[in-house]
Write a structure and sequence with these properties.
The protein has about 450 residues and is α/β, with parallel strands linked by helices. Helix content is about 35%, strand content about 25%. Strand 13 and strand 14 form a beta hairpin.
């Protein structure tokens, strides 16, 4: 295959470029932003100053695409964390037990991750990254997308165009102009608002732990707290939650919200550290999913990846990992078909829907524990939420249950293991024991 175009140089776009570089003679990545030479947050990613999780499975996929990336991330200041050992996880009013999972994630800022992956992509044969250039439309012939038009008036031909332009993708309109149908859209309004500050990090700031995750018990509690180690000897601290009308925009309000969390670890951390930035607020009004897999007619030569397909509530930290796994699924579909046909696109979207299904169900399920959340409810979500709470309670009692739950949450282990009859019976018994102990 000859030419491919990737719209967007986000983590999704960079992962796609890595996949396509092995299958196309040339790959051009286009981004409207000025892409910095350092780890400065960029304007086109307004959430880049906030905390991001690249789950264990996402890190594994990126390492497979860009060998030795993990070592480079650590060398640049990233911190290896076994989520069962180093992450202080507080949920349902209790601290989860310590358990070695044998797997590690790397805590770093999103701009740092993008910078290192972008540098690796730029080194790939046949790949060109162009910044400060915007796509204004798709080109096509009624059966397939054949390229793009740029804001300069330039026209680029392509055998495949991959839309990684994110949540604000305009491809529905672009595809409509070519006579192709737009996918059905599902939207769940969550009203998430969160505020982030960075602090100077020193040894001993967080005794016994490397990071903190505090989640509220819904519906009575709504605010979460996160503390993550960043490169440059910094802490990134976030407070925020669901259906928040008055987010903390100054230091006093930020500290007050931290002090009101159900666990005081974050409040104690920021009380003993030096702030480096003012609070930066980000709003996420709704989770949004575009159901390409349900379309009867798909154009050849075009697919969407990442937030252009599904934009998750960021509190769950699933977006970058799902986007990376979708990029890998695209490569598999291309190998199976040997061309960017409509049949290839259909198989890719089916695979992407499978990747998205479990994270979407658990994330949206968590969102619907709040009565203010609106939108289509997944079938049986009340029962699933009830059972997920039972698993969490059982995990407080047995470290092995906690280890399995972490593996599912990190998208390493398929969720079906949580619904086997023997496991369900064990969970229900242990959950009862957890309540007695509590």
């Amino acid at each position: 295959m000859r030419n491919a175009i990737v719209i967007g140089a986000s983590v999704a776009g960079l992962a796609v470029a890595g996949v396509l570089s092995r299958r196309f003679a040339s790959v051009t990545v286009l981004d409207r932003d000025m892409l910095p030479d350092d780890n400065t947050p960029r304007r086109g990613v307004p959430q880049s100053q906030q905390g991001h999780f690249l789950l264990v499975s996402g890190l594994q996929e990126l390492e497979a695409l860009f060998p030795d990336l993990e070592r480079e991330l650590v060398a640049a200041g990233g911190t290896r964390i076994d989520p069962g050992l180093g992450l202080r996880s507080y949920r349902f009013g209790r601290l989860f037990p310590i358990v070695a999972t044998g797997r590690e994630l790397i805590s770093m800022s999103r701009p740092q991750l993008e910078l290192l992956v972008r540098e690796r992509v730029a080194e790939l044969a046949g790949v060109t990254i162009r910044d400060r250039i915007a796509v204004t439309g798709l080109r096509g012939d009624g059966e397939r997308v054949t390229g793009v038009t740029l804001d300069t008036g330039e026209k680029l031909d392509a055998d495949l165009v991959v839309d990684c332009s994110g949540r604000s993708s305009r491809s529905d309109r672009w595809l409509g102009q070519l006579g192709f149908p737009s996918p059905e859209r599902v939207e769940v309004k969550v009203g998430v608002v969160y505020s982030t500050r960075t602090y100077r990090r020193r040894p001993g700031d967080l005794p016994g732990w490397q990071a903190v995750l505090i989640l509220p018990t819904a519906p009575a509690e709504r605010m979460a707290g996160i503390a993550l180690p960043l490169e440059g000897d910094r802490w990134l601290v976030t407070v925020g939650g669901w259906h928040v009308e008055d987010p903390p925009t100054d230091a006093a309000a930020f500290e007050a919200v931290a002090a009101a969390l159900p666990d005081l670890t974050v409040a104690e951390l920021i009380a003993r550290t030096e702030p480096l930035t003012d609070p930066a607020v980000h709003r996420f009004p709704s989770s949004r999913r575009r159901l390409f897999e349900r379309l009867d007619r798909l154009p050849a030569g075009y697919v969407a990846v990442g937030d252009a397909v599904c934009s998750f509530n960021p509190i769950y930290g699933q977006g970058m990992t799902c986007a990376t796994r979708e990029a890998v699924a695209l490569g598999i579909a291309l190998d199976q078909h040997g061309t960017a046909s409509s049949a290839m696109a259909r198989d890719y979207y089916r695979a992407a829907a499978e990747i998205i299904a479990t994270p979407w169900r658990f994330a949206v399920g968590g969102d619907f524990t709040y009565p203010q959340t609106t939108g289509p409810r997944p079938r049986g979500i009340r029962l699933v939420n009830w059972y997920v709470r039972k698993i969490a309670l059982a995990a407080h009692v047995r470290p092995d249950i906690n280890a399995l739950l972490l593996a599912v949450q990190q998208l390493v282990t398929p969720p079906g293991v949580l619904f086997r009859l023997a496991f369900v019976a064990r969970v229900l018994w242990l959950a009862r024991s957890s309540r007695v102990r509590g």
